[in-house]
Design goal:
rod-shaped, de novo design (two linked rop proteins), 7 helices
Amino acid sequence: MAWYFWVIIVVVILMAFFVLGLYNGLIRLRNQMKNAWAQIDVQLKRRHDLIPNLVETTKGYMTHERETFESITNARNLAQSAVGQGVGAQSKAEGELSGVLSKLLMVVENYPDLKANTNFLALQEELSSTENKISLSRQYYNDSVMHFNNKIQMFPSNVIAGMFGFKTGEFFEVESAAERAVPKVSF
């Protein structure tokens, strides 16, 4: 009868290690997802910091484009106020900002002196680089969310996730039609 006792103890210990491994895997994936979101946040902050410089540089050339400048400023303020309000709200606000920025860059085509201005070119390059980094960060974040959600929804880790209250992550999705549109590039 003593050997049954030891078998039960070994099975319980193995089950505890199994549950602990699943739990730690869920924690690791959740932290990876949070880190990926933080990387997006860093790039969005960089974009928000670049926009006033871009607007000021272009204002001198584009005196009658007041509506464009106001919409950029409003979209930037909206995007900054959406920080911390969840992935969906921030995703929507950033999509609107992207649409307004692409509108600005299309309007710039009508100002050859501005397109040749070195300050504008440097800011445009910085903004373009930042947009690429945002895109890559979004992709990494969505990949992290997918891995986390898969782990939460697949057996047997879904049992542990349910016991400890893990919730699925929210994808960063493009909601704005302007952001989905292919930008027009002309030389």
